[in-house]
Amino acid sequence: MPRRRRLRKVVAPPKFKGYMPYGNFGKTNEFIELLYEEYEAIKLADYDLLKHNEASELMGVSRPTFARIYESARRKIAKAMVEVKEIRTVYGNAWLDKDWFICNECSSQFSIPDANMKKECPICKSKLIRLINNIKV
After folding, report:
1. Could you tell me the pTM of the whole model?
2. Are 98 and 80 spatial neighbours (Cβ–Cβ below 8 Å)?
């Protein structure tokens, strides 16, 4: 029986639900699922320019595990580009650093600071919000 996977720490969820190829006339319903932890690995290594040791510490995983997550993300993105497929973000095996919410009215994502106890969207002031991270550690 395989070992149980440890949850990977993600500071903030992606600010998008997915990407679609532009100008794709042969529309297909196929898509690639990019996990939150894969998005975080790409962000830390390529956007924040952190070394794999530093990024792995931030995510709470070993360096080889970080390298596998990063490689998986790169392969998925490459496959989506070459095969002209949509990329969708999914929760995966992650836990978010703070409680993150999404507004059902305007789809904005936000965290509520402890000092501000109002449970409403900061953009449209809607009370129709839901918790994104359903896993607490």
Report:
1. 0.73
2. no
Which CATH class, in words, describes the domain spanning 98-137?
mainly beta
Q: Please provide residue 41's backbone torsions phi and psi, each rounded to the nearest 5 degrees.
A: -65, -45
CA 81, CA 21: separation in Å to the nearest integer?
Answer: 8
CB 17 within 8 A of CB 88: yes
| Distance of alpha carbon 70 from alpha carbon 99, whole angstroms | 24
Cα 52 off chain centre by: 18
| pLDDT per residue as tens, the chain (137 positions) | 777 777 788 888 888 888 988 877 666 778 999 999 999 999 999 999 999 999 999 998 999 999 999 999 999 999 999 999 999 998 888 777 777 777 888 877 777 665 555 777 877 888 888 777 654 33
